[in-house]
Design goal:
heterodimer; A: mainly beta; six-stranded mixed sheet; five-stranded antiparallel sheet; 0% helix; globular; B: mainly beta; seven-stranded mixed sheet
Chain lengths: 113, 114
Amino acid sequence: KNQVEQSPQSLIILEGKNCTLQCNYTVSPFSNLRWYKQDTGRGPVSLTIMTFSENTKSNGRYTATLDADTKQSSLHITASQLSDSASYICVVSATTGANNLFFGTGTRLTVIP
Amino acid sequence: DAGVIQSPRHEVTEMGQEVTLRCKPISGHDYLFWYRQTMMRGLELLIYFNNNVPIDDSGMPEDRFSAKMPNASFSTLKIQPSEPRDSAVYFCASSLPGQGKSYTFGSGTRLTVV
């Protein structure tokens, strides 16, 4: 069964600290993995997208990693800011069809001053 | 580009009433998706269109749900009759073709059925 699981479910960190969010998946055949940031009351916004051959991709203070062998991905946030408070959603795409997206339920990150 | 535009932003309606949600995708995007998001289940795909044609509606929960895309710049999601369990945030997203293309989501419509 194709599934995407994220951990932790929620996280609270102090401003300026680093954090790492985890995503494990069982989607097959794998096409790509995306991390989205969703601010409260807004739609998800793409942070990174990685294909099978990519291990690391950065977008500013966000760095995503992918281990296609263990089917795990992480999103590392460096020097967190209050504006990083949001839900982070891991989305894995299978190779066939435009609708073969499998969503994690997200990690709710709260950055406090 | 104004992005994907959804309306209304919030909708409160009584059980049994008809609800229509609207979406304007990004110009030039061939794909349009309707998603529903709840705390319990996260984001779920309801239906998607390619070049205005519905391709897969297997995610539509019941016959009470219907979606149309009369042209490349407009789509609607209708619920008739609405029920309290339909309360959720409904997102529309659009994208260009290709597996590597990123989806652009609208800001969503928060639906509350009382």
